[in-house]
């Protein structure tokens, strides 16, 4: 086996979709008081996973039901992390309209990689959400 094979395998594993990058680990999602956070949405992502989950942050409490996102957040999120034992349901239009998708616990550093219909993706497409934890 060539000495380059292990190196190529390592590079391939780093570049797979779903890689965590700079995103926090779902188990670490807590607010400043140590209370559980259901999800965090970020307004920055990048072609390099190490630069994802950056910029402004919208922290979502367990049980949050936001058919209309706070000012400046509609169609802004491009990375997100969902806490352990939580599920985030998102909609593409305000008032819980349009396309919908459920994100289970995990890191989603590049929402461009998740399809929203035939031609779209979820980057800059979230206009409403509901987050629940068990």
UniProtKB/TrEMBL annotation:
Residues 1-21 form the signal peptide. It comes from the Eukaryota. Pfam families: Syncollin. Keywords: Cytoplasmic vesicle, Disulfide bond, Exocytosis, Membrane, Signal. One of its GO terms (biological process) is exocytosis. InterPro entries: Syncollin. It is a peripheral membrane protein. It is found in: Zymogen granule lumen; Zymogen granule membrane. GO terms for cellular component: zymogen granule membrane. Its main location: other. Functions in exocytosis in pancreatic acinar cells regulating the fusion of zymogen granules with each other. May have a pore-forming activity on membranes and regulate exocytosis in other exocrine tissues. This is Syncollin.
């Amino acid at each position: 086996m060539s000495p380059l094979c292990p190196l190529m395998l390592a590079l391939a594993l780093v570049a797979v979709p779903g890689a965590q990058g700079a995103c926090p680990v779902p188990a670490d999602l807590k607010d400043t008081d140590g209370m559980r956070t259901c999800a965090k949405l970020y307004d920055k992502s990048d072609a390099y996973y190490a630069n994802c989950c950056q910029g402004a942050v919208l922290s979502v409490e367990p049980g949050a039901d936001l058919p209309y996102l706070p000012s400046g957040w509609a169609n802004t999120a491009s990375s997100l992390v969902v806490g352990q034992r939580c599920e985030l349901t998102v909609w593409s239009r305000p008032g819980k309209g349009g396309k919908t998708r459920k994100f289970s616990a995990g890191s989603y550093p590049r929402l461009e990689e998740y399809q929203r219909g035939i031609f779209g993706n979820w980057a800059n497409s979230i206009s409403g959400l509901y987050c629940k934890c068990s």
